[in-house]
User: Fold these one by one.
Assistant:
Number 1:
Amino acid sequence: MRRKRRNQKRQIKIFIGLTICFLLVMTVGYAAFSTSLTLNAKGSIKEIPIAADKLKQTVVTSGDGLYEDSYEEGRYVYKGASPDNYITFNNETWRIMSVETDNTIKIIRTESIKFESWDQSYSLADWPRPAYLNTYLNDYYYNSLTEEAKALIASSTYKIGGVSIEETSLEDTINSENSKTWDGKIALITASEYVKAGNNGCEMVNNYWMDSNYPCDLSKNWLTVVLSDSWLLTPIVDDQSFLLVVDGYIYSRFLTSNANVMPVTHLKADIALSGKGTESSPYTIKTA
């Protein structure tokens, strides 16, 4: 009887020992499998650089291309006659103007959406009032975009301060534009942004705007082609006129006059780009 009990106890101990070994093997095996699976999964994920990082890798110091902004640290602007800054947005061809300090991408449509007045009253220019074009761009035009395009737009700060004909440098104009801002989705290009796109040093020359003797080589500014008889966002301070580009030169015109409307917007910072940015192979947008 005693021998039988000893055998039973021995069998129980063996069973418990085997069970513990089995559980240990299963635990270690699962952990190894889980680790391998995680590593394999991580290895198969490819980092997609955000658009700003991709574009900053193309920065140049001469010729056509993306330059560091001389007036705003951390910002980059496209300069020259024909930089590779084409991008497809809303199933249309747009062009990249700049990489902003918050990594949003500022773009401009290459064709006019409307030949219209900046505003439809003779009151002082006031974009946030809202002016007619403000309402048109951020209501009717915005709602005409594809759902995909609308989801890519970032609400951003636009510089809407008025400039004076007394100003004699681009820095003065930038400071004047920066004196007043407006937050929204779609607007127009400013006077300083137009001048910065010229890759010929003309921004350092005094009296560069509102003068047919504009000293810049217009053939070296890609925006002279895009902006044909087109409104700018920049007003003449304390006046009823706004700036626009005609034949490459900057003039003023009463805001009730008609001119082309070239929408400008910011793309969100978390997008990614594929393509080369050329006219034949424009950048296309992916979500990062």
Number 2:
Amino acid sequence: MKKLLVLLSLLALVTGSVFAQGAAEVTADSYPSGPVSAIVPYSAGGGTDLVMRALADAAKASFPKNIAVENRTGGGGAVGMSYGANAKADGSVVTMITVELVTLPHTGTGAGLSYDQFTPIMMVNSAYSAITVKADSPYNTLNDFINAAKTSTMKVGNSGVGAIWHLAAAGLAKTAGVTFNHIPFDGAAPAITSLLGGHIDAVTVSYAEVASQVNAGNLKVLAVLAPERISATPNIPTAKELGYDVAIGTWRGLGVPKATPQPIVDKLYSIFSTAAKSDSFVNFMNSSNNIIDVMDGPSYQKKLAVDNEMFKALINELGLKQQ
């Protein structure tokens, strides 16, 4: 009798395991069967938001119950990315993760955020900082701006304390031997609005984020913090050319909570990598001066680990860690 009970128990365990496995496979195979939220950790209208919306729009046919972009701002990106990291691991929430995922934790402003809370789906694009001022600013070159900073307090807007554009400005200031008054905003869009209003002297966001205002004649770019000139702006020099050896930029990609089943991760990669090749997305990225830079999940995971160590060293060197 005891042997029979043991055998029945084992049979139940095996059957339950097989059933659970089958259920998981069905869920993955039928994904996405419900609505999906795409979290953007910055304000609407900024570069990250616009890239995510264009990608979601290109992928919407693959989400029969809709994919909706949701802005969750605060903490230089920490609020939105933390929300995404702690969401259900069933593919119902996808987060646009940015380089701040590997910078904020080292500044002491990441609120427990860590890159290993995510399973990366893919990297989507990359960009470098552009030192941008108002079109009627008295500063026409980067040297003009740096020289002014030696005698005046220059207010430089960024996308949040410890965020990449803060690091870009801090890196430039350190290299040039000057001090900026760093003004944080919840994303690039409000920082640009403040610059247009004359409340700050410059922003250090990406060129793609200021391109429309530059083309409209409202802003001008003094230099880019890139290893070489940007193809969209071949006439704008790099800081390195002008004697300031600093190159700092960002990347954007997609991630889901760490425990998300691999079949769902693979399905998401298939959906979004296809969307990234679509005419609508490619045309948007080209017209907005955004660089498409696709990397698959495993390669992106390695990049996260490498960049995490690189920014940890940079932040410590710049003394930006908050106590």
